[in-house]
UniProtKB/TrEMBL annotation, chain A:
Keyword Transferase: yes
Gene3D superfamilies: 3.40.47.10
Domain Ketosynthase family 3 (KS3): 2-403
Superkingdom classification of source: Bacteria
Keyword Transcription regulation in record: no
Record organism: Streptomyces bangladeshensis
Protein name: Ketosynthase chain-length factor
Pfam families the UniProt entry points to: ketoacyl-synt, Ketoacyl-synt_C
Keywords: Acyltransferase, Transferase
Classification lineage: Bacteria, Bacillati, Actinomycetota, Actinomycetes, Kitasatosporales
From TrEMBL, chain B:
InterPro entries named in the record: Beta-ketoacyl_synthase, Ketoacyl_synth_AS, Ketoacyl_synth_C, Ketoacyl_synth_N, PKS_Beta-ketoAc_synthase_dom, Thiolase-like
Keywords: Acyltransferase, Transferase
Pfam families registered for this protein in UniProt: ketoacyl-synt, Ketoacyl-synt_C
Superkingdom as given in the UniProt entry: Bacteria
Family annotation (PANTHER family): 3-OXOACYL-[ACYL-CARRIER-PROTEIN] SYNTHASE, MITOCHONDRIAL, POLYKETIDE SYNTHASE-RELATED
Keyword hit for Ion transport: no
Protein name as it appears in the record: Beta-ketoacyl-[acyl-carrier-protein] synthase family protein
Sequence ranges assigned to domain Ketosynthase family 3 (KS3) in this UniProt record: 2-416
Length: 405, 422
């Protein structure tokens, strides 16, 4: 019998809210965290809007010795992990240390830290480079630091599939539970908000150039013209139900019921892989399309990609066959953090019985035949959700979460 | 009936060797391929040696456009990938592409290209607000190393699960472990896996310099990496790539494929201790070895050979010697152990796969490649490290291990499969 995987703690760092409650309130109020970037002089760049986390004070949460050796994304990850563990009610000694592990998603690593050290190396010399550069920048940093902070000696891994990686990390954490671990920290937190990352994102040609936060990121809309990059994501506690039930009062947000990933061929005549990922994730969960109460879309905001996604959703669920959510219109795309945050948001939707709206979107392209939840949240029981994510270059991942019984 | 993962094809790009055949002769002869750095002027650095690959991308079949667009690590992966696919005799027209995946490993991704582009865009590091006018259109592919997995998938036609595994210096083992897991759970029938790394640029060199982790035997680069030797003084950085084709056993048998061996057990553990330091007893590496042995249902006396991490630092030598004793008990003293980094240096996220490829070739040939440069054994390292000369031995079950920054400790058991070519 396959061991099941349930989420019992959710740590969130998002541009429109720190912690699941503040974040959820912002979503319900339609409060966007997209604003003019302030972390560096944005006036030099074509694209000026980002999903920036406004008031994160790392020194309020972390010991002094962690600060010089960590990038912003690691600090956010460590704090989100603390919140997730606290929410799950996990205390030292509850779970043997070798039965706990960590799987995170990454994209560019501790990029701001890396930019600073690269600059020192080339403008000042090798002797000015931080002794922490080797690990503060590299992609494995968050898994390493989380495992050290919480003395988790079990399995550790890091997966990278751009924005799809957030789902792949959770899928891989579920494998670890099936293979014998009892509790995993998983998800991803990422940031595009330093100049060196910003120019790379701009180079893709997919970032919105709008300067109006209400109009910059409009997935599935007639006016869609790119996405807004941001920072943040989610780290969650994933464990077996048996482990969770040993702690009195633990809340089970839901179960990771299905997962699959595929890749888009560039060979002529091959269909995109997204629909297949969705169908396989449903199959893995043992569910039909009719069992899904809401789809959290990848929602890139680029017409060609929006069309592919709308087509996949329409084919699987029928025209306007399922409510579709795009809360990332309030945070921007968060890369390694984005899909994990969507999974967390789906679990919160089940908890609060509501679907958050896409903000800014007015006119969904009629041919898409999507029931996109816009303007106001939709109050409705949510028993299960499908989360879809795509990564730059052809990655597709899909995950099904459902209420745990 | 459970699904088993076997390896049916290899492709190698190594210091001192392009292709599987040259690679095996280097290992079998115990030749070293570390040398003074020629990729850039290393005079400002403490350690000025590396395992460099003599790689000619155009002669290797890449187009000029690919050479311009792809980081060197991605070029390695594509070229080694093609060798591995050919070696495995995979006919893509006869495969269902949706059942083919990619799990590529890399520790530092496209660092070399990132650093090059950064120095241009930032005017030698002087501009914090990097100039957007000087960026190449594919810059984001350098930022995000999953582009390399995407490249390998596109080149081979894979449409199944594709990802990059990045766990620092254990990425090369962990990517193959990930691939084996995809096979076992039924997510794919074939996974193109392995690790690639081309980190030889100033920022990587300085990272190890500041930690004093790399060797300063700059006047004798060929003999600079000396694991288990009393005179060792650190690792020697390297680049390289090994791509392995991981395939479901019955799928491989049905098409009459050669089989190098089975991924019989795999585990990775966090030491939860320090981002760069190791505790001396090797507890977590031992725990990874024990889990991998359990999965393979093999007991210590039946481990015929251990391929060590052998990076050339004292810390590592003591750590893994402790781990072998802890996990294998008395049998640790009678099991031959050797380390390939003594010959080809430490190619970070690639080396674990280069070691897996070397172990599979060792099983096929019945020959254990040696630990080079081991002349004065460290008395604290009192196991059998097969110094300098290869040793003949019939190998049925082999253990390979890796250890890296972030605290990752990985172990894999490779096993001969009945009917496989020797």
């Amino acid at each position: 019998m396959t061991r099941r995987a349930v989420v019992t703690g959710i740590g969130i760092a998002a541009p429109n809210g720190l912690g699941p409650t503040a974040y959820w309130r912002a979503l319900m109020a339609g409060q966007s965290g997209i604003r003019r970037v302030t972390k560096f002089d944005i006036s030099k760049y074509r694209s000026k809007l980002g999903g920036e986390i406004p008031d994160f004070a790392p020194d309020r949460h972390l010991q002094d010795r962690i600060l010089p050796q960590s990038d912003h994304i690691t600090r956010l990850s460590l704090v989100a992990t603390d919140w997730a563990l606290r929410q799950a009610g996990v205390r030292n000694g509850d779970v043997p240390t070798d039965e706990m592990g960590v799987v995170t998603a990454a994209s560019g690593g501790g990029y701001e830290f890396g930019q600073r050290e690269l600059a020192k190396l080339h403008s000042q010399g090798p002797e000015y480079v931080s002794a922490y550069q080797s690990f503060a920048w590299f992609y494995a940093v968050n898994t390493g630091q989380i495992s050290i902070r919480h003395k988790m000696h079990g399995p550790g891994a890091v997966v990278i599939s751009e924005q799809a990686g957030g789902i792949d990390a959770i899928g891989h954490a579920r494998r670890q539970l099936r293979d014998g671990a009892n509790l995993m920290l998983t998800g991803g937190i990422d940031s595009a908000l330093c100049p060196w990352a910003w120019v790379a994102h701009q180079a893709t040609g997919r970032i919105s150039r709008s300067s109006d936060p209400q109009r910059a990121y409009l997935p599935f809309d007639e006016r869609a013209g790119g996405y807004v990059p941001g920072e943040g994501g989610s780290i969650m506690v994933l464990e077996t139900p048996e482990t969770a039930k040993k702690r009195l009062g633990s809340t089970i947000y839901g179960e990771i019921a299905g997962y699959a990933s595929t890749f888009d061929s560039r060979k002529p005549g091959r269909p995109p892989g997204l629909q297949r990922a969705i169908e396989m994730a449903l199959g893995d969960a043992g569910m039909d399309a009719a069992d899904i109460d809401v789809v959290f879309a990848d929602a890139v905001g680029e017409p060609e990609l929006d069309q592919v996604e709308a087509e996949a959703i329409k084919t699987v669920f029928g025209p306007r066959g399922v409510p579709v959510a795009a809360p990332k219109t309030m945070t921007g795309r968060l890369f390694a953090g984005g899909a994990s945050l969507d999974v967390a948001t789906a679990l919160l939707s089940m908890f609060w019985s509501a679907i958050p709206p896409a903000v800014g979107v007015r006119e969904v392209v009629p041919e898409y035949e999507l029931d996109l939840v816009v303007g106001e949240p939709r109050q409705t029981a949510v028993r299960s959700a499908l989360i879809v994510a795509r990564g730059h270059g052809g990655f597709n991942s899909a995950m099904v979460v459902r209420q745990f019984r | 009936m459970s699904r088993r993962a076997v390896i049916t094809g290899l492709g190698v790009i190594s210091p001192g060797a392009i292709g599987v055949k040259e690679y095996w002769s280097l290992l079998a002869e115990g030749r070293t391929a570390t040398r003074a750095i020629s990729h850039f002027d290393p005079s400002a650095f403490r350690s000025r040696m590396a395992g460099e690959v003599d790689f000619h991308p155009l002669k290797s079949g890449l187009s000029p456009q690919d050479v311009r667009r792809l980081d060197r690590a991605a070029q390695f992966a594509v070229v080694a990938g093609r060798e591995a696919v050919t070696d495995a005799g995979l006919e893509f027209d006869a495969l269902d592409p949706t059942r083919v995946g990619v799990a590529l490993g890399s520790a530092v991704g496209c660092t070399t290209s990132l650093e090059r582009e950064f120095t241009i865009g930032s005017d030698g590091g002087r501009l914090w607000e990097v100039d957007q006018g000087y960026t190449v259109p594919h810059l984001y592919d350098y930022v995000n190393p999953s582009s390399m997995a995407a490249e390998l998938a596109t080149d081979t036609g894979a449409e199944g699960p594709v990802t990059l595994v990045s766990t620092g210096c254990t990425s090369g083992i962990d990517s193959v472990g990930y691939a084996a897991r995809l096979i076992e759970e039924g997510s794919a029938d074939v996974v193109i896996s392995g690790g690639t790394e081309a980190p030889l640029s100033p920022i990587t060199v300085v990272c190890f310099d500041v930690l004093r982790a790399s060797s300063t035997r700059n006047d004798d680069p060929e003999h600079a990496c000396r694991p288990f030797d009393r005179t060792r003084d650190g690792l020697v950085l390297a680049e390289g790539c090994a791509i392995v084709i991981v395939e479901e056993l019955e799928h491989a048998r049905a098409r009459g494929a050669q089989i190098y061996g089975e991924v019989a057990g795999y585990a990775s553990r966090c030491n939860a201790y320090h981002m760069t330091g190791l505790e001396s007893e090797g507890k977590d590496m031992a725990s990874a070895i024990e889990v991998a042995m359990d999965q393979a249902r093999v007991l210590p006396p039946y481990i015929d050979y251990i391929n060590a991490h052998g990076s050339g630092t004292k810390q590592n030598d003591l750590h893994e010697t402790g781990a072998f004793k802890r996990s294998l008990g008395e049998d640790a003293y009678t099991t031959p152990i050797s380390g390939f980094k003594s010959m080809i240096g430490h190619s970070l996220g690639a080396i674990g796969s280069l070691e897996i490829a070397g172990c599979l070739l060792a099983m096929r040939e019945g020959l254990i490649p040696p630990t080079a440069n081991l002349n004065e054994p460290d008395p604290q390292c009192d196991l059998d490290y097969v110094p300098n000369v290869a040793r003949e031995k019939r190998l049925n079950t082999v253990l390979t291990v890796g250890s890296g920054f972030g605290g990752f400790q990985s172990a894999m058991i490779l096993r001969h499969v009945r009917g496989a070519k020797r």
